[in-house]
Amino acid sequence: MNDLDQLVDQASGDFARATTPAALEDAKARYLGKAGQVTDLLKRLAALPADEKKVRGAEINQVKQRIEAALQARRQALAEAELDAQLKAEALDVTLPGRRRGPGGLHPVSRSMERIEAIFGSMGFDVADGPEIEDDWYNFTALNTPEDHPARSMHDTFYVDTRGPRGGHLLRTHTSPMQVRYAVQHVKRHAGSAQMPEIRVIAPGRTYRVDSDATHSPMFHQCEGLWIGENVSFKDLKAVFADFFRHFFETDDLQIRFRPSFFPFTEPSAEVDIAFASGPLKGKWLEVAGSGQVHPNVVRNFGLDPERHIGFAFGMGPDRLTMLRYGVNDLRLFYEGDLRFLSQFK
């Protein structure tokens, strides 16, 4: 056996004794690295005569290939051993039944939104949807909200930008802008008609304000409503609310009251409270909505004559109604994604 064969046997033995990939790479460096034995042999070729250099070089290249083959074989063996150990450690009993994916269900707030739409739909209200990034005119100006109103503050509203021909853009703070958009389109569609059909619409959807605690979330839901005609009064408003709340909470044992309030887009304005005749909230007045007769300036922004067209608007929070309906005392539970909580509403 010549010196080159001994080198191959020596390298193969060192590779075989390596029990980890790191140890194997260390062994490789002793033979095939920059300072390795095979590399050193190749460097010495420069000192040999031309004829001898050719023969010796071919022999060294063959040795290098044999050592590389032994290295690759050991790498493969170590990889297979590691995989085998992993499979034994993570053994699966394929005879066990699989994990079944349980049936899903609607989020409680989504259930409430669908319920709200169905109840108002039965009363002849359309459902409007629109952009969540709104411009200042639709969100504030068209709704008679002055420039110095607190809601326009950077501390209360998420602004996307503050520049633009109509005051810039923001994440809508309520869904009332959809009332304006719907009414403007309604007036355009029926321009020139001898009799303008009534406007009766609700606008449910996501809204955004800088607020977060047990009863408030930066993202929350609202449902705004609008009814405009030539003979729409507060009597109609009270009848709509009475019918809605009794159907929503599935009980006739509740009272409704209106308290004077102020909103820029209605005049007169009123808060709407309800009180249950039974249950854990028995006798407690709970604020559930805001309402009022649409302000003449807002009616003009619709493109209508406030001397002829009159009506009411209202707004309620589906999140709060959901809390009352299901007895939830912390709004944040709706958005934490805890399946232990959400699975109760399947």
Describe, in plain words, how this protein is organized in 3D.
The protein is of the alpha+beta class and 346 residues long. It folds into two domains: 3-89; 108-345, BirA Bifunctional Protein, domain 2 (2-Layer Sandwich), CATH 3.30.930. The protein is 41% helix and 20% strand. The protein has eleven helices and ten strands. It has a seven-stranded mixed sheet, with helices on both faces. A three-stranded antiparallel sheet has the order 2-4-3. A hairpin with a 2-residue loop joins β7 and β8 (266-276). α1 (3-17) packs antiparallel against α2 (21-32) and α2 packs antiparallel against α4 (50-89). It is elongated and about 115 Å long. The model has no long low-confidence stretch (mean pLDDT 88).
How many domains?
A: 2
Distance, first to last CA: 80 Å
CATH superfamily of the largest domain: Bira Bifunctional Protein, Domain 2
Mean of pLDDT: 88
Largest sheet: 7 strands, mixed
Write down the CATH topology of the largest domain. Answer: BirA Bifunctional Protein, domain 2
Number of beta-strand segments: 10
CATH class of the largest domain: Alpha Beta
> H/E series, N to C?
HHHHHEEHEEHEEHEEEHEHH
Strand order of the largest sheet: 1-5-6-10-9-8-7
Low-confidence segments, ≥5 residues, pLDDT <50? none
What is the 3D shape? Answer: elongated
**Tally of individual helices:** 11
Give the radius of gyration: 38 Å
